Amino acid sequence: MENPLQIIDISNIDVPTAREVVSAAGSQGFLMLEGHGFSQEEVAELFKVSKGYFEEPLEEKKKYTIPANDNHGYTTFGGENLDESNPDKPQGDPKEGYNFSNLNLLEGTWNGATPEYFQKSEHARVVQSVIKKYSLLVHKLLALFAIGLEIDKEAGGADWFVERHKLTEPSGTTFRLLHYPSPKSLNPEETIRAGAHTDYGGVTLLFQQDGQAGLEIHSPLTKKWTPVPYVDASAKFKEQGAAAPIIVNIGDQLSYWTNGLLKSTVHRVKFPEESVREGKSRYSIVFFSHPADDTLLEPVPSPFIRAVNGRGAGAQSKAITAKEHLLKRLAATYGWY
Ligand SMILES: O=C(O)CCC(=O)C(=O)O
Ligand SMILES: [Fe+2]
């Protein structure tokens, strides 16, 4: 399967790397990163913890079902319908997930009722350690965005986005484990596992596993549904024991904030015919980063963003906060594009 995404090595924070990252985020809206800092062993352990959790009895998992007013907890099969264009779909998406929300990104801890499985220190330790790691990676990525967008030095330059994503401040950031069960146990006609949607927040980081295809983007370049294959680490990174490239995409909030310069690309999970026949489940691990709740989504002070004024944040007379933007987005009534 051909990889439609650019793979960028972010080991060094410099101008050429930053330009590449901004260009990919501003065209396809999805990209892959190497030099992300996650080891192969760490990611394998994380998938193991995730699989172990989903193997818990359904009754047990349901005890921690996500409450109506919070984003922390278990989402059961059919509990979520991501495709807002089809709100009357009788059943939601055939997948289950566990969200860790209300995070302290410095400590890697969360706030919310926690199943016994994740209270166990060997599981809690893994989750905490990756949340911290994701947060550092997000900061690195945000510095690259700021450099690539040439944010005005006097406004904060390379630190501009980082200052708005303080690790200890409340935010909508969510760490999510997902399980799309074996098609054998489901109607094989039902190949769409997560309806077409855009993500709500800033940047999303995703790990998938070899042989568990399904993610597709609606490419802004070709306007076609395009599968995103699993891609192995390149020779250099493999030798260092690094995990496969991490998939990055831009969410609605960052797209709005950058007057649409960075693209929030529509994507979905659709099982290919062969994986339906083979009866393979898919597990994916996703980190949704959001700015701190109180962050004002004022137009980003960048010459590139000023040049696309009149859209997104640039079209509003009064800046709204990240939290307000998220609440509007969640209400599913909000569309500026
Ligand atoms: O599982 C996947 O590959 C995609 C998940 C996703 O897009 C989401 O949860 O927002
Ligand atoms: Fe998504």
From TrEMBL:
This is BA75_00449T0. Residues 67-96 are annotated as: Disordered. GO terms for biological process: small molecule biosynthetic process. PROSITE patterns: FE2OG_OXY. Residues 86-96 have a biased composition (Basic and acidic residues). Residues 170-291 form the Fe2OG dioxygenase domain. Keywords: Iron, Metal-binding, Oxidoreductase. It comes from Komagataella pastoris. PANTHER family: 2-OXOGLUTARATE (2OG) AND FE(II)-DEPENDENT OXYGENASE SUPERFAMILY PROTEIN-RELATED. One of its GO terms (molecular function) is oxidoreductase activity. Belongs to the iron/ascorbate-dependent oxidoreductase family. InterPro entries: DIOX_N, IPNS-like_FE2OG_OXY, IPNS-like_sf, Iron_ascorbate_oxido_reductase, Oxoglu/Fe-dep_dioxygenase_dom.
